[in-house]
Amino acid sequence: MGEINAITMPKFGLAMTEGKVASWAKPIGAVVKAGDDIADIETTKITNAFESPFNGIMRRHVATVQDELPVGALIAVMASADVSEDEIDRFIDSFQAEFVNADTGEDKASEVEPSTVDVSGRKIRYLDMGQGAGPPVVFIHGFGGDLNSWLFTQPALADHHRTIALDLPGHGGSTKDVGAADISALAKIVSDTLAALAIPSAHFVGHSLGAAIALSIALDDPSRAASLSLISPAGLGKEINATFIDGFVASDRRKALEPVLQMLFADPSLVKRDMIDDLIKAKRIDGASEALTKIADVNFKDGTQTTVLAGRLPELSIPVQIIWGEEDRVIPVAHSQELPVAATVRVLADSGHMPHMERAAEVNALLISFLQ
Amino acid sequence: MSKKSYRQAINEAIASEMRRDPTVILMGEDVAGGAGAPGDQDAWGGVLGVTKGLVTEFGRGRVLDTPLSESAYIGAAAGAAATGLRPIAELMFIDFMGVCFDQIFNQAAKFRYMFGGHAVTPLVIRAMYGAGFRAASQHSQCLYPIFTHIPGLKVVIPSSAYEVKGLLIQAIRDNDPVIFLENKVMYDQVEEVPDETYTIPFGEANLTREGDDVTIVAFGRMVQIANEAADRLAKQGIHCNVLDPRTTSPLDADTILQCVEETGRLVIVDEASPRCNMATDVSALVAQEAFGALKAPIRMVCPPHTPVPFAPNLEDLFVPNADRVEQAVKSVMGYKIRENA
Amino acid sequence: MQLSRENLLKAYRTMRTIRDFEERLHVEFATGEIPGFVHLYAGEEASAAGICMHLTERDKLASTHRGHGHCIAKGVDVRAMMSEIYGKKDGVCGGKGGSMHIAEIGKGMLGANGIVGGGPPLICGAALTAKTLKTGGVAIAFYGDGASNQGTTLESLNLAKIWSLPVIFVCEDNGYAEATAASYAVGGTQMKRAEGFGIPAVQVDGHDFFAVYEAAREAIERARNGGGPSMLHVMLDRFYGHFEGDATTYRGTGEVDRIRAGQDCLRRFRSKVTDAALLRHEDLDAIDRESAANIDAAVVHAKAAPLPSDADLLTDVYVSY
User: Fold this and answer.
1) What pTM was estimated for this model as a whole?
2) Which of B25, B81, B152 sits opposite C317 (nearest CB)?
3) Is B68 at the interface with chain C, CB within 8 A?
4) Domain formed by C5-306, architecture
């Protein structure tokens, strides 16, 4: 008898409890390889391509498109060609009979929750996930984001590495005191955070502002960085989209923030209500608005980046990978060209400023192979 | 961020503001509990345990048990507010407003206007409202329309634990008198609430569900009922905007009108008695400002024009529920404009 | 007698200003030029002056519908008051309050009050502020014999007592609640009422500035020293009706004439200080002339002052909305 595999509703990020199949990428009868996109999964936060964990033939679409299903629910069945339709029916029946909605089940307790660490009087929130040999992978989000920006990335890397995603000061669950707020001041706080967590050296994955911070850490103390993965990085050129930065700082209502967030993606329909809501909630916290304003003023005033580190790239002796979305409307992808360093530059089609969300599977694959 | 009850969210809001600002004080019947009594001094935290722990942290100088004397202490709260404190006065049940109404609507609400803009009265009066608690006619009313009617007052009816913390902190920092109403059925409801202090501005409606077919405007706990109905309807292919105005004064008329312009259909869910309530107010607003957008008559889902009954079966019949909202939405969806009319 | 010459002159000036203000309003109201309701304090001046002589701006008072005297005694500018009563833009409340809501929070005058019994709870709050913020201030609740029957007043006596608030309850008993006599409407006595709440009380002749001043000094000192609330039951008379336009048919024949002749607090003050050679008639005459000129100027100003603009209708409802 051939193998039968259940394809279940994935969990993207900590908060996801249910999702729906937005569309199928593999029709019934299609031959599927592990890693192929099989469906677009839509959550209230974002839509993301879902990759097949298995090889096989797509035999059944169990989920109806646009049906809200809990995480873990059966959405499709894959099997080899020799499995009969009857066997698949029985497989589905028995799966459904045994399925317990994970949200009501008891395995919630085993979920990883963010922690906080005190870094010279600042509370810094971080999410520590996975285990592995060698330096951990440290994720630094961009301006206005938080550790949840890595919802598709961190779990994928946590399979083989210890991973730490942190909230920069002024962001997420971290203290709103941003100090001097320039790149090197923020880099110092990140370094101190890692020191407080007893992490002497790390593979840095930084996005946008976070990438500039990672770069700054590596330049100032090469012993701290084992490698750099810079995603749509700030710090490599002068230009940055003032409409985005100023709009993000100024908008505190859904209607105003939505078009600003849409600038982050090649496909604006990816911006869902929960993404907007979460950002509005983060901005409402006392001091958050002031912190963002200060970071924007210090680093990105009038559409110009204050700190450009491109010229110092030759100082680096560690592996550097740069990933950029071809349709980035926040920082021009042109900044990735003619860099004075032997960095691997990957420009991804159909992606804006957030390739790790918009092209999560490709970015994950690039990061995993780069870190090997 | 962690899961907190509506009750705990209120407690956190008060505690954080009392820590931040020494002029914030709390008064009310049993808010500390045990004043002058031989037993435990902070075991109780009011009839619903909302203020538990506060007297231990802030002392009896700032957490004041009052006599059962609403006229005196609500008036005192107004007088204290006008002279430099930021009192939070807890009135327990909104129904008790009847005995201290003068202090609210003739005094606190009017100081600023009567005194030519020279008075600042940062007063918060908290009270619980709403039916569903088997508390009968004198402990179950929704009197927020009455306060909404009075210029000078702001009126807040938070619909969840996250909302109640941000709105209460806003209320305490606000420089006008605020009537802050908590639905007693919601105290034990739990959701993610940030540990940090945050504020939700007044007069900004929150869109809790998005859809193109019908706009549902719901108030306070009715937002939850409207969400439930909207989720059910979505499975049947009817997609609703659910709008939580958060504050009835100020009212976010712009967002309401915008949503109605988009959907052309309006259902209003209001737990207050049906005459001159928020449902009639919003209906009038839409009829006047967005008449041309309407594809069907406005439907109001409200209780009947009766006091709140005691018998559980009657009370359940009295309070609007998701079934009634679902029916109302379907009725506006099914409405056909008469030809040749 | 502890009052300095300067303070004696001040006391007389306050009383004379109140009297002139009210007598002039009586005349002007009859012309129809003043809108709304006006309740005159003439005859009761010794109460406001005798108590407010002890107060500074950190001290608060809540007044009644008969509030002009308390306002003047608390230091509110007479010209801004007159403009207010005429409903003018440069009135102390921008013309939005009028006689019944005349107030100046910055001077500790928390308002005349259109609601009988409205003031005592508010003043408990003002006293709570003083106590909580340790300002050293006290708070005075003026109320009449009519308001003494309001639940708010009785609740406030209780609240002030149990919280040991620095409040002085001043019951200005002019014998009439509108047209109904206190002898009919008040059960028991004000003194016994205070006693029932454990609050020290004294009855004072409100026609005698010095009696009021002395009683107030003791009560205010007690409040400032943390001794809690007191009550002054001030017996006095009003020269006019409940409101301007009141035909006062309920008052006895010749009652007001007898009061004016024998119980006028200004006359009694004058004879006392001149008899004791503390002040000369000329000193007081000068104040009379000065006061008359002031009030005259205030009326001339108020009549000519601009009305609030149409835009003022919509302002000052909220600090922000």
Assistant:
1) 0.90
2) B152
3) no
4) 3-Layer(aba) Sandwich (3.40)
